[in-house]
Amino acid sequence: MASPLPSLPSEIFFDHILTRTSLESLGRCRLVSKDWNHVTYDSRFWKSFCKRSDTISGFLIQSQSQIDRKHIQTFVSVDNKANKNFSHAILDFLPVPVKIEAVSQGLVFCVNQNVSVVRDYFICKPTTLQWEKLPNPKTRFLTSMTAMAVLSSKPLRYKIIRFSSHKYPFSKFKSRQYYNMTCEVFDSNTWAWKRLKNVSLPYCVLLSIDQPYVTSCGAFYWLVRLARSNQVFAFYYGDDKESWEIFDLPPPMEESRGRFNYKKLVEYQGRLALIICEREVMDLWVMENHGKKLWSKWKTWTLSTKVFKQVEGYVPPLAALYN
Fold this sequence. Notes:
By secondary structure, the chain is of the alpha+beta class. The protein contains seven helices and 21 strands. A hairpin with a 2-residue loop joins strand 7 and strand 8.
């Protein structure tokens, strides 16, 4: 019987093999094991991977001019060399000034800023200067929220979700009041918008539209605020079927009664996570099981008084930070 092949040391495998894979293959590699998933999110690994695969990684920051209220976009890379390859006006190659609505894996969904005409929608890729004009959704409804996800890169397929105000925003069913939102989805496979069944939320539920959505495990997530600020609104964008639900945040939020100074949904190593801050203590909770909605506390940090005051007083702008 032949002896088993010797295994490579993990340092050699991660540093010299996994960092040379393609961006498309990296996602599949993360499914192999928890160790692989953890290592591929490490900042040192990611820096080496970007260098060897010629991948540009960074953030699009959108701000609004105080003079003419126009939106301005700039790119900040984790690689100083990459910063030199982009102009500060990174979306100037588009035919009109635009506002970013959503991003996903290098694709940018944006809309014409000129409100005096019918708004045009675009999908573009800043790294290659490619762009296409999209068909318009039902623009008679004012946009409330948008989100986008890339389902596959080869061949490219993506979906865009758009929530907008409804002609009849309030309804009543079995003595309960509901807030209605129009929901449309654009699928690049069909190259058309499809109107879905209205999203009818309990009257007391409002979404934190002033914070960016989080994408994880085939869904978009927004915090629910006001009456029940300890919940999450999830919209699932499966291949052929879309659905939504509302579920609870970790147990500490159930008993918080507003005692937390700061809370924010984030994506952590491919999973939905929550950062909460009480006084000088910051906790990271991660959803371990999406089906059963099981959360677990992963990390705890003790902040200095100076850092705590900066976090406590931070108010995210309407034009948020995009990855």
